[in-house]
């Protein structure tokens, strides 16, 4: 028991203080880097909280560390404690997402927290410039009264409502509060320096347990976020599978009804069922295409046209409204026609780029180049097969670039194949993937995946004769650009 007391009373000489400082330093740097990687605000507040605690514990050290503390932070000893409490409340409420669960309590507690921060800074600035420690001591005594009241009010909604992860915070805070209460009582009751050091040693142990619990809580929070994302993806996959089963069920049911009817005796009924089948199949196609169209594109287009109307630019509004309506008509026509000519496909792409150019103030330089011997009217392709590639180039490749260049090249490859290449001068595939990985919520390009599946289905009778490749045009440069090359057989 005497050895334990000796370790607690001499935390620096025994290595307890050094161990505690090392744990805090590692946790602070780790969570600070996590914040920059994932942009989750509790990581930032937690790393700042650990940094303030790390500064505060230098008062327990000796030698050059203690001298460094006396020279730079002695006059701000009370302020460090007060700032630590303020940042702690910011971390606690952001960690438990109180703004979402209890918005009114969050508003009142944060307002009280920032009011106290202003009072604490004002008191220490006045004390620093006017001299004397009386004002600082008076402010700290006010903190000793204000802090428990605010803590009780802050923890009331946490204890009242079953908020996930609250036990990490409650248990950790209780341990730290009990550890902190000892040195405060010893100091206020003047029970001696030795007893204060022993009580401070218990406070260091409490701090280690508290921070371990907080780190476990942050890890648990990250695990819940990952599980939530995984469940959302599984739900989306399940919904898509159910939609596909429903579509197949409707199609099979209608086909079975058509096959079981007698062509001669039930001709009228067959015609009616066939018409119903075509209507439902058309609706499925429309729903399919709607699911692939980017809703931001429609919103931005209509919003830009509305802006022209508000600014009384009627000619621009009428021009782009005609373009938009023509593009929508092309999309709806594609739901009825499985195949369209390459000329019609390029015309639809031209309309799409013209509409997107409204959002970029006509910064996109779009060009279509047709090689010798290419008959655009005679070449048949799946409807709207190029739209997703062009959309991907604009949204993911060209958005950060000032001078945006986009081109489509159509060339004949021998007597039986043609090559359609879509080139841009954007940031390239590698950088685009890095940006997507840095986002907290990553998303796959569903449109490109469905386009590949449509190509496989459409050219199933031409096995091995269609190919799709993505390459960077100038690897290693700041804007390497991307080339999407689609090689298809002539029909």
Explain what the structure shows:
InterPro entries: 7TMR_DISM_rcpt_extracell_dom1 (IPR011623), Bact_2-comp_sensor_kinase (IPR050640), HATPase_C_sf (IPR036890), HATPase_dom (IPR003594), Sig_transdc_His_kin_internal (IPR010559). This is 7TM diverse intracellular signalling. The chain folds into two domains: about 1-230; about 335-490, Heat Shock Protein 90 (2-Layer Sandwich). The N and C termini lie far apart (about 90 Å). It has helices at about 1-10, 10-15, 15-40, 40-55, 65-70, 75-95, 100, 105-130, 135-160, 165-190, 195-260, 265-290, 295-310, 315-335, 340-360, 385-400, 430-440, 445-460; strands spanning about 340, 365-370, 380, 405-415, 415-425, 465-470, 480-490. It contains 18 helices and seven strands. It has about 500 residues and is an alpha+beta fold. Strands 2-4-5-7-6 form a five-stranded mixed sheet, covered by helices on one side. The protein has a two-stranded antiparallel sheet with strand order 1-3.
In a few lines, what is going on in this structure?
The protein is an alpha+beta fold and 491 residues long.
Written as H for each helix and E for each strand, in order along the chain, the element string is: HHHHHHHHHHHHHHEHEEHEEHHEE
Radius of gyration: 34 Å
Integer average pLDDT: 76
The largest beta-sheet arranges its strands as: 2-4-5-7-6
Largest β sheet strand count, sense and barrel closure: 5 strands, mixed
The beta-strand count equals 7
Helical/strand content category: alpha+beta
The rough form would be described as elongated
Count helical runs: 18
Which assembly state applies to the chains in this document?
single chain
Helix content: over 70%
- Please give the alpha-carbon distance between the first and last residues: 91 Å
Overall domain count: 2
Detail the poorly predicted runs. Answer: none
Strand content: 5-15%
